[in-house]
Amino acid sequence: MLIRALCDYYDILAKAGKVVPQGYSKQDISYLVALNVDGTLEEIVDYRISELVQKGKGKTKEVKNPRTVLMPLPATNPSKIAANGADCRPNYIFGVSNTDKEKEKSKARQAHDDFVRVNKALLEKLECKSPVVEAFSNFLEKWNPEAEQENDLLVNLGKELNTRKFAFCLAGHPDELLHGDKDFASLLLGQMETSGQSESLEGMCAVCGDIKNIARLHNKIKNVYGGQSSGTSLVCFNNTSEESYGAVQSYNSCISEDAMRQYTEAFNILMADKNHHMLLDDTTVVYWAMNTGKEEEVMLEFLNPSGGMDEEETEKMLTDLLEDARDGKVVRERINDLGVIRDEVDFYIVGIKPNASRLSVKFMERKVYGELLQNIAQFQLDMQIGDKGRPVPLWRIKKELLSPKSTNDKIDPSLLARLFDIIVNGRPLPGLLLGTVIKRIRTDTDLQINSIRAGLIRAYLNRKSRAMGQKEEIGLSLDINSKNQAYLCGRLFAVLERIQQQAAGGVELNRTIKDAYFSSAASMPSVIFAKLMQLSQHHLKKVGNTNKGAQVNLNKLTGEIMDGICGEFPATLSLHEQGKFIIGYYHQRQDFYKKSTAKENIVKEAIEEE
Q1: In the chain, pLDDT over 70 holds for what percent of residues?
Q2: Who is most buried in 165, 312, 323, 602, counting CB within 10 A?
Q3: Which residues contact 137 (CB under 8 A, 6 or more apart)?
Q4: Where are the alpha helices (DSSP H) in 359-508?
């Protein structure tokens, strides 16, 4: 399913002109080897592009990045010596290594010998040579690695001689690149086709169903977090125990060379674009729509808002979708209002993680675009808490599940995979997520309970109620009519904290009742609230000494909440009820903040009128 989907996506990219020709790959070229017509090395040209990067506090730094150039496909196995036509690897071009290890120097000389052999054989087929091809031909004849060990042009490159990639050009003409010569380029393509046919095995392709040449080795996928720098294989057979019916290596997969090239090219294009993948813990999540139009652009902003769309346009689109979901409108109507979006387009989300030398697929989801968008909009709506909410990106959710004081804390990978499944399919949130959020709230005592953590708890409680066919219990803001005991206990704790703060007269306290008792009160209210109620009487007297009105209001609010408590405080609260306790606390605190803000605005307006 995954390889078939990637092949289909390749066809879409090909129609849009976004894939490279067969036999070529994109290479990051840093330097040009400028040759005279007689084959001598004139200079090494810095081919990188300079750009200014923000470093914070208004400072910028100039950074040089390689240029992306189409070059012949490199050898499938970089550990073996196998030269390509017009190779870009420095050890093949120069046969020189700036290390002191004799083994590396010997390997570089062998690589250069193979480079000369392959390219001489290639040039013999070319009758008419352009100046740049003639210069390259003479270079192959004249360059002697032994004599060039101390060449200043190479020595000045330092470590970059071994790590950067090079292309050939004619001296004084950096735009005339060797691989850009039409006759030479056609020879390179012919070389690729010939080399591919030498080890081919004909059979039925498992992807397209046609009789074609089966690929023995598959190209590697690059830029996967934790994978090898040279790339990691999605399909490979390294052990004889995995082989059957006399087939060796990837012949066992029955994937044709054409399908192999298509799916690996499409995968690498996705991995090269930061807007098409994101990192959740140690899992790389890749996503794409079977369309390169607005459908893909809109969905990418939900999963990974990184500036693909105009910022104002994105914010308006997300806000409108949330408003529609909040008002109970059909998201399909909103999709149609966006004009060019077709809600029947398929959307794929894949989680991959390297395992030894190959990739393991952790999860894969395929959804119709309209249904997926509706599920994501519903999840965002469930996450909202308060009158005015904003869309919450996944990286913020992940951040709230980790300790802010830990540098190596990790989330259970299975939780992240399940979270993706839940968002995509609209399922209830797992109890593991609720436990993780509550643990963080109880442990991170120096932090306020923010809207994301409270939103996750609200989403869990309401989705569970919805799945059981019950009415949703938790609203967006304070519910003064709720008789839920855990919710009332949370509200009461917020009021008692408010009384303590008012008693302090604006002085910042080193330790509040939240710091000392919140965790215990959320799990064992009957033990803690008796002590807190006694403390509150002392604090209320201090409030009355400076503000009689505040004392009366707080005492009245305490009484109203206590009237809802059924006889006595609950002895213990389950994890589910602790979530309601935290929501009650958060709602009450937000109500205090809203009222104080409204009061400040009234005072401000009165001053301005005077």
Answers
A1: 81
A2: 165
A3: 39, 123, 129
A4: 369-383, 394-400, 413-425, 431-443, 451-467, 485-503
Minimum mean pLDDT range among 170-174, 404-408, 497-501, 508-512: 404-408
C-beta separation of 574 from 514 below 8 A: no
SS3 at position 170: strand
Nearest to 85, CA basis, from 163, 178, 21, 171: 178
* Distance (Å, whole) CA 62 – CA 12: 37
Give me 78's structure tokens: 């970089």
To 10 degrees, the CA torsion angle through 175, 177, 180, 186?
A: 160
Q: And the tokens for 122?
A: 């290639």
β-sheet bridge partners, residue 277: 286
Q: Residue 201 is inside which H or E element, if any?
A: strand 201-204
Helix extents (H) in 198-277: 257-272
Tell how strand 166-170 and strand 31-35 pair up: parallel
Q: Say if CB 567 and CB 442 are below 8 A apart.
A: no
Q: Cβ–Cβ contacts within 10 Å for residue 529, how many?
A: 23
Rounded to whole angstroms, the Cα distance separating 554 from 572 reads 26
pLDDT at 52 over 90: no
| List of residues 6+ apart from 539 with CB closer than 8 A | 496, 499, 500, 502, 503
Residue 349: phi and psi, rounded to 5, are -130, 125
CA 223 to CA 164: how far, in whole Å?
17
| Cα 403 from Cα 397, distance rounded (Å) | 12
Transcribe 155-169 into DSSP letters: HTTTTHHHHS-EEEE
- What is d(CA 77, CA 220) in angstroms, rounded to the nearest whole number? 10
Q: For residue 32, give the amino acid letter.
A: L
| Between 562 and 128, residue with greater pLDDT | 562
Is residue 286 a contact partner of residue 352, using CB atoms and an 8 Å limit?
Answer: yes
In one-letter notation, the amino acid at residue 240 is T
- Report the C-alpha gap between 381 and 323 in whole angstroms: 9
Q: Write the single-letter amino acid at 60.
A: T
Where on the phi/psi map is residue 48: left (φ > 0), alpha (ψ -120 to 50), or beta? beta
* Inter-CA distances, 21 with 188, 390, 541, Å: 12, 43, 81
Distances (CA, A) of 590 to 47, 91, 381: 57, 65, 19
Class of residue 156 by CB neighbours under 10 A (exposed 0-12, middle 13-18, buried 19+): exposed
Where residue 167 falls (left for φ over 0; alpha for ψ -120 to 50; beta otherwise) is beta
pLDDT tens digits for range 502-517: 998 878 888 889 888 9
Closest CA to 436 of 423, 418, 424, 421: 418
Torsion angle defined by CA atoms of residues 33, 36, 39 and 40, in that order, rounded to the nearest 10 degrees: -80
In order of 289, 299, 343, 443, 518, the CA distances from 293 in angstroms are 9, 11, 12, 45, 50
Determine the Cα–Cα distance for residues 288 and 308; give it in Å rounded to an integer: 14
3 state DSSP class of 60: strand
pLDDT digits (tens, 9 = 90+) for 556-579: 999 999 999 988 899 999 999 999
Determine which helix (DSSP H) or strand (DSSP E) holds 388, and give its type and residue range: none
Is the Cα dihedral 85, 88, 94, 98 positive or negative?
A: negative
- In the numeric block, the tokens 């060797």 are attached to 178
For 52, the 3-state DSSP assignment is strand
Report the pLDDT averaged over residues 381-401. 79
Please tell me the pTM assigned to this model: 0.62
How far apart (Å, rounded) are the C-alpha atoms in residues 288 and 275? 9
